[in-house]
UniProtKB/TrEMBL annotation:
Record key words, sorted: Cell membrane, Membrane, Transmembrane, Transmembrane helix, Transport
Gene Ontology CC annotations of this record: plasma membrane
Coarse class of the protein's main subcellular location: membrane
Bilayer topology annotation: Multi-pass membrane protein
Name this protein carries in UniProt: Binding-protein-dependent transport systems inner membrane component
Biological source species: Delftia acidovorans (strain DSM 14801 / SPH-1)
Compartment annotation: Cell membrane
GO BP field: transmembrane transport
Stretches assigned to the ABC transmembrane type-1 domain: 60-240
């Protein structure tokens, strides 16, 4: 039984409404304090007030700017590094262990160091975001470029294609689905990285709002900021899906 996209989205929206209704009902029935778990209606009111008064907008812009800068830098470096490692087995053997080590170190532990080295502001947030989203692009690019059909690769060699021509006209188009999948993962991780970095030393950004709300014991404001973070992540993920469909459609054509 196939379900249309419209019906799938309708079911998802209905499920969300049911869960929110149960949440609201349980909070009211059990008399939970807003400090412990605010009701969805209270979160919506806080969210609306913050947007209407303009409180949230500078923080949204700061997080979005750091996220996009870090994503662009990390993705570009990850793509180039993946291409270089895919083209050189020696480079892969020498550099891959260092790349893995850079990823297994917790980014939350690096955040205070970056603040110490680069000061407060956007730069540490951008650097941590770039470091987090670098690896998915590199790994998926490396994997995608290594999955080229051997017969097609041999045909390019027989036709006298250079390594650069083979890379641009065969390997990259073949590995495009894997590269775009890595971009989707990087977008989600970039948002996580930006918010986590803002926890440590940013004066603006949604992560800074969460920390400020925690200090004021304003759980409702904290949930409102988390809703904005989730909405931003969903929108960016959907934008990646649209980009992926267009690129793959043009490649198929």
């Amino acid at each position: 039984m196939t379900v249309s996209l419209f019906h799938a989205r309708l079911l998802a929206a209905a499920l969300a409404l049911v869960l929110l209704g149960l949440w609201e009902l349980l909070v009211r029935q059990w008399g939970l304090s807003a400090l412990v778990l605010p009701a969805p209606s209270a979160i919506a009111a806080s969210l609306w007030t913050g947007l209407a008064t303009g409180y949230f907008w500078p923080h949204i812009r700061a997080t979005l700017q750091a996220l996009l800068l870090g994503l662009a830098a990390g993705s570009a470096i990850g793509l180039l590094a993946g291409m270089a490692l895919a083209e050189s087995e020696l480079l892969e053997r020498v550099l891959k262990p260092y790349v893995v080590v850079s990823q297994v170190v917790p980014k939350l532990a690096l955040a205070p160091l970056f603040v110490l080295w680069f000061g407060f502001g956007m730069l540490p947030t951008v650097l941590i975001t770039a470091l987090i989203c670098f690896f998915p692009l590199m790994e998926n690019t490396l994997t995608g470029l290594r999955q080229v059909d051997a017969q097609r690769l041999q045909l390019f060699r027989m036709l006298g294609a250079t390594r650069l021509q083979t890379l641009l006209r065969l390997k990259l188009p073949t590995g495009l689905p894997a590269i775009l999948a890595g971009l989707r993962v990087a977008v989600v991780l970039a948002l996580v990285g930006a918010v986590v970095a803002e926890f440590m030393g940013a004066s603006r950004g949604l992560g800074a709002v969460v920390i400020a709300a925690q200090g004021m014991m304003d759980t409702t404001l904290m949930f409102a900021a988390l809703v904005l973070i989730a909405a931003m992540g969903l929108l960016l993920y959907q934008a990646c899906l649209v980009l992926e469909r267009r690129l793959l459609r043009s490649r198929a054509a």
